[in-house]
Amino acid sequence: MPQTLNSQVVKSRRLVASEQELREAIDRELPAAGLGDLVIMGGHFMLFEDPQTGRLTPGVIEEQREETMRRRIAGRVGVFPGYTWRMSVELLRGYAAAGADVRLLLLVNDWQYVPAGDRPASELRAEFFAGMSALPSSYEKALCDAGLTGDIVLPSRKHPLAFPETWLKYRFQKAADRLVRAGRLEKRYLDTGRRDTEVAFLDAEGNYRTLISCGITGCAGEITEMVSEVYRAGHRNLLIFAPGECLHPVETGVDIALSLYDLPGMRVVVADPGGSGEMTHDEIYDKLVTVSTFRR
After folding, report:
1. Per-residue pLDDT reduced to its tens digit, 116-151
2. In a domain, 178, yes or no
3. Which residue range(s) make up the domain with 258?
4. Positive or negative CA dihedral for 161, 293, 80, 120?
5. Model pTM?
6. How far apart are CA 62 and CA 58, in angstroms?
């Protein structure tokens, strides 16, 4: 049986009904005074196939000229990528002015809408990231308007401008093997043939939280690895803007990261302003936005 870790993670949650309330909640949880560092994950986008070129393209409305692609992205994620990137840049300026060392983090979903056609998905991904020598133009413009450059973006060990989700998934799978052997995670067989397995975390309340099922790492697993990577890079405060439909697995991933790994002093705030097709502030905030805080 795996070891059940003592609960050392302090959690809180609130709902907000406007952008002003969201900013106030962030300021309460991450007060600028005395904050040494902060990483803000904003602008998260998916990759879609461009039907005209057959290549992958950022799922950001502002980056698309063709109306079919704009409608497809709008229906899937709405204004979330551009909206959260611009808000992240604005927040960064305020924290930086108060003396904090602030970086932006760009998480790219490079698997969910990558087609399985004539070309292997791995080839399409490699082509996209090899050609990603700069941020999407609308993201660059937001930085330029704020007097900033791409140097403010936190590099991953995979790419200078992005944290690819598939890379985080693979890294967590490797870490999970070690953690299973150490008794920190449990590996269970799902069939009598002992072919299909799942890897789960047993939390302090005795609940199993599945991280890998049938060899596939879920969103919680990749977020667990992302939090660990941010900590490894020397940062102790992280603000995550997550799509609403991903809120639960993101919260689970953060909670597990702070429980499973030794990350003393880490604080993570998660908010979900849209991401499910919302196109206006009213559509985003009429549904209410969750702000969750995790402290180790």
Report:
1. 778 899 999 999 999 999 999 999 999 999 999 999
2. yes
3. 10-295
4. positive
5. 0.93
6. 10
